[in-house]
Amino acid sequence: MQPLGRRLRAVDATSVHEPGTTGTDWKLHYCVNLGDLHCDFFQLTDIREGGETFRRVPVVPGDVLMGDRVYAAPPGVSHVVSRGGDVIVRLNRAALPLYEPSGERIELLPRLRQLGEKPREYQAHVKDPRGGWIHGRLFALRQSVEATRWAQKRMQRRAQRSQRDGLP
Description:
single chain; alpha/beta; five-stranded mixed β-sheet; two-stranded antiparallel ribbon; 30% strand; globular
């Protein structure tokens, strides 16, 4: 039995490479029930069959699905919510625009600049591709100094690698 009758599930995918190939050949999509740490769903797809999305995962009412920012897209969020579940995702501003209750687009940067030490919560709505709105919340929290330094170092390493390899 899950706490409060809800399953908390982490959704992700990994690339599979066949011997001798240079790119991704397959994607293994999976879902782990965090209550018992068992994989309760998996699907192996050809790379041409689409990417990572909540739409692949069966959902029952009360499920809470967590995904990284790749999963932050209105069609996938709609899939989960329309089946009685909830979604927790890291925001992808390009793929998941958020709106005020009035229907205006949320301007994130002014809000984020005002963040102090404590997390903030805002009402946020997502346009449902099937029509209407999906009501939700945006939680914002300032990164720690250590996390900021780590992210900056990672970006510097990527930039150096791009220059060395001639990549954009």
